[in-house]
Amino acid sequence: MQALNNLKVLDLSRYIAGPNCGMILGDMGADVIKVESPGRGEETRLLSPKIGEHGIYTLVYNRNKRAMTLNFRSPEGQALLRELIAEADIIIENFRPGTLEKMNCDWDTIREINERATLVRISGYGQTGPWSSKPCFDAIAQAGGGLMELTGEEGGEPLPAGTFIIDYVTSLYACIGVLSAIEARHTTSKGQLVDLAMLDCSISLLMTAIPEFALTGRELTRGGSRDRYSTPACNFECADDRWVHINAGSDALFPRFVRATGMAHLLEDDRYATNAERLERIPEVEGFVSEWTRATTSEKVIDTMTKAGVPCSRIDTIGEIFHNEQLRARGQFIKVQNPAYGELTLAGIPICLSETPGALRHAPPVVGQHTDEVLRDWLGCDEARIREYRETQAI
Amino acid sequence: MQALNNLKVLDLSRYIAGPNCGMILGDMGADVIKVESPGRGEETRLLSPKIGEHGIYTLVYNRNKRAMTLNFRSPEGQALLRELIAEADIIIENFRPGTLEKMNCDWDTIREINERATLVRISGYGQTGPWSSKPCFDAIAQAGGGLMELTGEEGGEPLPAGTFIIDYVTSLYACIGVLSAIEARHTTSKGQLVDLAMLDCSISLLMTAIPEFALTGRELTRGGSRDRYSTPACNFECADDRWVHINAGSDALFPRFVRATGMAHLLEDDRYATNAERLERIPEVEGFVSEWTRATTSEKVIDTMTKAGVPCSRIDTIGEIFHNEQLRARGQFIKVQNPAYGELTLAGIPICLSETPGALRHAPPVVGQHTDEVLRDWLGCDEARIREYRETQAI
């Protein structure tokens, strides 16, 4: 048994924020159907890099789903969509606000068809407010939502986090919204509308920035790799030209650091003995540390810090991460197989449940791989009816 | 009614990843009790910046909780903890692996006391594997988990995302784990252990990096603000020295961009007409765009792009975000009041549910603010018993 085996999900979404939400629900056991336009399917399927003719980008966000095609623009396709909605617990969409309405499938229609259904709508700015129809991508939300302002060297140009972090975060909030609605349904017997905006999600990540600004007018900005609360805590370069991050800033960690590196005399020095004092002298403190790291290989730095119990990591490359023994021991790489494209290795399932663990049940599907199967399973269609859907180009 | 009103949560956690998980459950309606050591409470309460004597850092992650004190180290405190666990649906902890065991409160003990309870354990590297006892902070997980490798200028030094993003992401996965376990409990009547590792969560954010490396050996690395899949799509500087992010890279968006900026002739030019061609000539393409932005104010750039339907945002400062009309219209700033520290403005609740919306029920509490109230509510204690707990220094 898996935790979400009782849930049926219709995933109409594209790109990352929607598909990743559906995938996580699938990882935890939901029956998730990825619905795409007939033919080429989701437009991102054509993006490089590819495995065979299949864009890896789309495959990454769609494991543990079955894929069917449906013509969103034809009356026959829209009628079929409503039949599927009647069977679904959850519908995920991230069209531009207004698009679902054009498909004759607005929230009022969905409730009428299936009052137990929950509709998750993911968009850049939300379903309400003056910006609701503006287009948005991850980097746009990082720019407008504060993450770019906070990322980059001190005094340098603003930068995004190097992954689609707001897409990911929004997908995680969407899962929490879905599961909250499902929990409420055990009491109310009714579904609800879940409205997620990337911009709202962005500002939930800003630490103390908002209350600080409201109170004092002080605007938090970027500061490189330096910790905001203690020192020494930042990236340091080692003798072998590799970077490590060391956090020895707290008054519990600093003594361990200096003892392990032959600098115990600093504990006797009033200028450095407490974090409060050290924060007044960041360049000197970081200077001591970097003098040591520049004379020491990254391997030796890691080893010394690990023995001393000081948090430290090399800034690992993707290849090094791929071989990380801890991730390997925890089964955090999984291989998937599909006759269409062969074998693919994906990041694993980070949510580890002891009694109903997530599992790989479906490799990422290709366009329409399970159309017939889903029509049989969800709607009890016979071959004649499936043929009819195909002839009317509903699928 | 709120979605999670039926859930009682005992939050033993510190810093961000644990507390933020408890807070989100509280935002959605759970009865969340923040348990801290008597006296100064969670050590982060002393961090600057402060409102009065109260560190804002801790307040930010603890709204919608009630706070009680409990002496984790004394037999009386540990006995009280077990009484509370008997009443809880969910227990959240992010001590170093092994600490809960020392408190005579390991998973086997918890199951024995309350077989319906779910224990969420959040740590740097997880409860299993060779690295399980290593200390970790957010930046350490960003370094070891790939995010630093992917963030920064092309060819420049690695940088972290400028917020505690892995703490946040881990807290969101923890919420999904909790709610999955609660959904499973409707079938099994039993709780379970949920094991979250920051490192596992980190590598779930790496886009196509892992499958690409496994297939081809190619290691994704940092590339500034540039989109990986299309061009033009990156940060551009404007005439007023402000930065904007424009994404006009796709073959749907590029024509809108060039028409809006008087460069429609590029559509006739084979070298730039398709994204595939443009990706071969990124410097030239970005050159055209930045020539235009450098001659145009950021306000005019945003206005032109918005009218053309091209995704675009200024890189807003925290102050600008605080005044953002869309966030204001969506109620994404909330004011909290506590006699101890006055008024504080926080980011709102990004999960918008139509029927059982989240709400602010408790301002972030100060240490032990609700100890007596919780002992009465959860355990039905009378004044004499509360006095006894206080005399034995259990609370």
Overall description:
Chain A has helices at 17-27, 56-60, 75-87, 99-102, 107-113, 138-144, 147-150, 165-188, 198-203, 209-216, 253-260, 275-278, 282-294, 298-308, 318-322, 325-329, 371-379, 383-391, and strands spanning 8-11, 31-36, 50-51, 54-55, 65-69, 90-93, 118-123, 193-197, 233-237, 243-247, 312-314, 333-338, 342-347, 352-353. The first copy, chain A, starts with 7 loop residues before the first strand and ends with a helix. With 395 residues, chain A is an alpha/beta fold. The first copy, chain A, folds into two domains: 8-204 and 326-391, Rossmann fold, CATH 3.40.50.10540; 233-237 and 243-314, 2-Layer Sandwich (formyl-coa transferase, domain 3). The radius of gyration of chain A is 25 Å and the shape is elongated. Chains A and B meet through helix 2, helix 6, helix 7, helix 8 and strand 8 of A and helix 2, helix 6, helix 7, helix 8 and strand 8 of B. Strand 8 of chain A pairs antiparallel with strand 14 (352-353) of chain B.
Per-chain topology:
2 copies of one chain form a homodimer.
Chain A lengths: L7 E4 L5 H11 L3 E6 L13 E2 L2 E2 H5 L4 E5 L5 H13 L2 E4 L5 H4 L4 H7 L4 E6 L14 H7 L2 H4 L14 H24 L4 E5 H6 L5 H8 L16 E5 L5 E5 L5 H8 L14 H4 L3 H13 L3 H11 L3 E3 L3 H5 L2 H5 L3 E6 L3 E6 L4 E2 L17 H9 L3 H9 L4
Parallel strand pairs in A: 1-2, 1-6, 2-5, 6-7, 7-8
Antiparallel strand pairs in A: 3-4, 9-10, 10-11, 12-13
